[in-house]
Structures are given as C-alpha cells and as structure tokens.
Known about the structure:
A: mainly alpha, B: Rossmann fold, five-stranded antiparallel β-sheet
Amino acid sequence: MLENVVTFAFDILSFTSVMVLIVLGLGVIASMMGIFNFAHGEFVLLGGYTAFLTQDAGLNPWWGIVLAPLIVGLIGLLLERSVIQKFYATPIIAMLGTYAIGLVIREIIRSLLGGHYKSVSEPWPGFFTVGRLDFSIWRTLIIAITVSVIIVSWLLLTKTAIGLRIRGSLENPMLARACGISTGQLYTLTFAYGSALAGLAGALIVPLYQLSADMGLRFLVQGFLSVMLGGVGTFEGPVVGAAAVGALAASLPWLVLPVLADPLVFLIALAFVKVRPQGFVGKGRT
Amino acid sequence: MSQEYATQRQSGGVTRRRFLTGASALASAGWVAGSAGGWLLRPERASAATPIKVGIATDITGALAPFGNANWQVAQFVVTEINQQGGILGQPIELRLEDTASDPKVAIGNVRKLIQEYRADVVLGGITSAMRQAIKDPIVNRGRTLYIYPQLYEGQECTKHLYCTGPTPAQQCDELIPYLIKKQGRKRFAMPSANYVWPQLLNKYARKVIEAHGGEVVFEEYYPLDQPEYSATIAKIRDGKVDCVFNTIIPPGLQPFVKQLYESGFQRDGGMISCLYYDENLLNYHPAQEMDGLFSCLDYFQSIKDPFSEGLQERYNKMFPGTKYLFTAGVASTGMYRGIKFYEAAVKATNGDLSREAVSAAIDKATLASGPGGGAQMVPGKMHCKMNMYVARCKAEGNKTHYDIIGKYDMVDPKEC
C-alpha cells in the first residue's frame, strides 16, 4: 500500500515538474512583459530538436541539454529584436504575431522530420532502487533541475540588481525609463531568458515524449491555463498554476475515465478563475 | 527600395528566367503541374495509345504526411515499372495526385477534381477511416468510379466497387492472439487504446479471439490521442497482474505510454507488449531497449527472406535513395502495391475494357502471384483479399532494432462482408 502511494506521488511530482518547467518561460514572459508568447510551444520544440540534432550528430547527449537553452535563447533574442518588440503596444496583435511565428517554426520542423516521430534517448537512462521500488533517473533529474531552475530564477529576480530593474520596469515602465533604465534592453533580455527556459524544457522532456512537430502544441494550451490559474504579473503565480494543472492532469485519470480527465481539468480551472479572477497569487499588472 | 530590388536581381535572387528554368527541369523529369493543383506523372515514352488514368488521393501534407508520401512514392514506383514493361496491354498508365491534406473537408473538393476534371479510371488512397468515409461517396456513388483503399483498418467496409487491399482485424488477430496465448502462455490481456474508431472496433474483434482461446481481458480503456501521462494506466496493469498489453495507443500518446510501461519494470517482470501497426518506421520511435520483445503482426516485414520481396525493396530504395518514406506495411505501402497490381490484373482480364462494371467484376476474381510478403487473392464478393500474414518479434541489439519473423501464415482469410 505504502509502495503504491510512493509511486503515485513520484509520478505526479514528475509530471508536475514537466508542466512547471514548460510554463516557467511562458510565465516569465507573460508576467514581466505583459504579452502572451504563442510561439512558446515551438520554442520548446526547438529545444527538443536541438537535442535530437546533437544525438544525430553522435555528440555526447549532454551537449543537447547545454546547447538547447543557448540556441533557443539566441533565437528568442533575435526574434525579439526583429519582430516581437513591435508588438508591445498591442497585446492582441502580439498573440497573432507570435502564433504566426510558431506556425512557421512548426511547419519547418515538420518538413525537416518528414512528418515522422523521432525518439531521443535520455543522456542518463536507467533506474535507481530504493527498497523495492524503482525510480527513473531521468525523471528524478527533471524534478531536481526544475527545483533548481525555479530557485535560480527567483534569486535572479529578487536578489540581483538586474532583477530589481526588471521588477521596477514591470511596476512602472515610464518611471523606470525616467530613472535611466533601458526597458527595451531589459525586455530583450527577459524574452531571451524566457526562450532559453523553453529550450531547456524541450531538451529535458523530449526523451520522455517523441520529437514531433506538434510536441509543443499539447503543452501550450495547458501552459496558458496554468498562467491564467496562477495569475499574471508575478513570478510565483504561473509556477503554482502549472503545479496545480500538472497535478490535476496526472491524478484525475486515477479517479475518472481518462477521456473525461482532460475536459475536467479545464472545467475545474475555469470554475476557479471565475471565483478568483486574479488567480492564486495575482496582484494584477495594471 | 527599387535599387535594392535591382541588386537582388543581379546577385542571384529568384528571377523569372531562373524560375522558368527550374520549372522546366521539373517538367522534363516527368512532372507537369496540373491545371488546378494536383501533379501529373506522364508515361516516359509518348505513345499513340491513350493512357489509363490512375488517380491517387492521399495525405501529402498534415499529420499523416509520412503515410501519404510513402503511398505516393509506392504508386510512382509501381506505375513506372508497369510502364517500363510496356504498360497494361500496351496502354501506358498516367498518374495524377491530389493532396487530401489529412483533412476530410479539404479532401472532398480535391477528390472531386480527380473524378470530374481528370476523369480518373480508378482512384486509390485514403489512410484513416474518416478519410475513406469522406471520399468514398464522391468517388464511388456520385462519381461512379472504382475506389481502392490500401491501409490496414478496422474492417466493416462493404461498399460495392470499393476494394480494400490492406489487412483486416481477422487477418491481424486470428494468428497472433492464439500464438500469444498458446505458445507464449499469455492469459491476462490489457487493452489501452487511443479513443477513435480503429482501436474500438479492433478491440471488439480481438476480445472475442482472446476469450475464445481462454484468455481474459483485464481492462479495455480509451485515452485522448495526445495524453502525455499514464501512471493510472500503469498502476492498473500492475494491480491487474496483466501479462500481455495489447496496445492500440497511437502517436503522439504512444511514446510516453511505452516509456512509462518500460520504466515500471513490466517487461523485466516477464510482461509482453503486442501492437498491430508496428513496422520498420516505428523502430525509430522508441529507444531500442523499450522495443525489445514487442510482437507485431503484418502482411510484410523487410526482414522477410523471399527473393521477390527483397528485389522489390531493393528497386524501391534505388528509385528513392535515402528516402524518409520507407516501403513498409504499416504505412499502407503493401496495400498500395497490391491495389495497383490488382487493377493491372483486372484490366488485362477485361482485355482493356476500362468501364467500372467490367473492371470491378474482374478485380473481384483477381489473383496476384507475387507481391511484398507473397501473393494475394481477392475473395469473390467480399471486396477484401486473402494474403500471407507474419508474426514478428522486435529484437534489440545494442541500440539497433529489427524484426525477427516468428511465424508465417499462408493466405489468411479477411473474414469481412
């Protein structure tokens, strides 16, 4: 009995970490910059594709984990400089624009893969055993990395000078600019950071799923739900929201028919948002 | 702006002349853009005889692109070989492709072009059952044209002038399941499935076979196609003491399920997986260790040692070197091969009469002496064909995998209609 509870808890925790990891980048961009990046799922895909390419080239698979955030962060930086920065004044256009960017990336990857699904192996496969229970090393690592990424991001935002400036620009961009803070540069940096997180998430989770062009889509919708549920405008909000959505999505199939679990997650989340529109940790970006 | 444009023209942007050169290169390779979309593949030697018009309606773009492109390449391959040998009774075959775009709504319009504008003598194609249902009416009923459907599917398609050349549930289950129960000692089956028509009807049939042979179905459960997390299912498999997972989950939900099942130690504890659509494409879908020991049952595997199949495979690979779209059973390559060959045999039997009634009556009795995995024979009045079936087991060596043929079953009955 205890064994079942432990495996259950581990499974829920591991899927929750995957959700949080994916939502982190989305949440950072949504909260700090006030735009929803609809290409986020494709940034995750690009991270996964980077991992696939390094595997295909016969490199040590850990290079994929290292390169993915760098490459996707760089792509994010270039996109922000060239296209995304034109969208800040019009959040609705930003959604459409980033969706279009996502579509382009998705279809390019689809043609590169010939529409097939590809398997990417874990850099560190296998199990470790505690008592009579086996735990996947890779899933455990994902949990650990997620926790560290949360801590590092949180420290970055609350304890460093650059974090102070980011929070200042978030609070009052006009005043921040008047104080000599270059909000434009900060936005570029934040967007690149959010993209890099997506890239890292992609490279970490692709061994658990197949690499396919639609890999990011699945998580995008639940990602937005998480951000909505957690509340836009804070760092903690989306993290808590993602944890809630992840835990719900993984535990509901234990209780109800699996085909009902998906819509139920949405129903519960929407009901919650109706009661508490600002989300779990919302202070609102107004 | 205009200056920029001018330099671009000089320095090698796409100019009109360049574009035309490119287009004529395509045309000289046998390709002619159709008047309204589609692609034509004309026979190489211009001949006085009017060509037989074969329409291919398949998913070149969208989610099912790997299937559709494989089908289209096989069609080109078979037709090119027939034309090189002088066509059918001296009449060459002309191929016309319309993309069904993995979307039945788009497909209907494009398929109508094959019927109304191009006036195809026969249409082959369709991958999913939803697609077949959508295009069979414009082809068979309103279009009064012969239709051949090449993919393995859940059965129960009994429309006149619609011939199915892929395996049916009976062909895939009747040999594999008794083998798993009698030879491998499997008793307790689980049926985790994607929530759509193929798994539902296939499971209904498989359950009958399992129970008739003394096995037991512990649970049959359906999931959204892209479900990413299966811990609840894995727990049911463990608690129900399942010894054989009869999987009909498909990508993208497939890989997380197989991985979680493997991580739960199911195979190490002696459990087995069987999955009826696993062909050579699927070998790249999972890490090798997760594939090891998996059972499949199809009408063809590349590891089959018979000279005809090996020659076919070699010539296909020579025509499309390094292609992403392999000649395999799971993507309906074999069904497409049989479909065109059945049509060829039928037109020979009617002595060149291309009218639907005549050809259809001839296909109904047609036999193929050879093909991938062996010959095939239409069951008269049943619109399905008998074919050889193979039970194969996936074997991992290092990080490479291949299929070992475990059993060959001659001319298995489709048991449809």
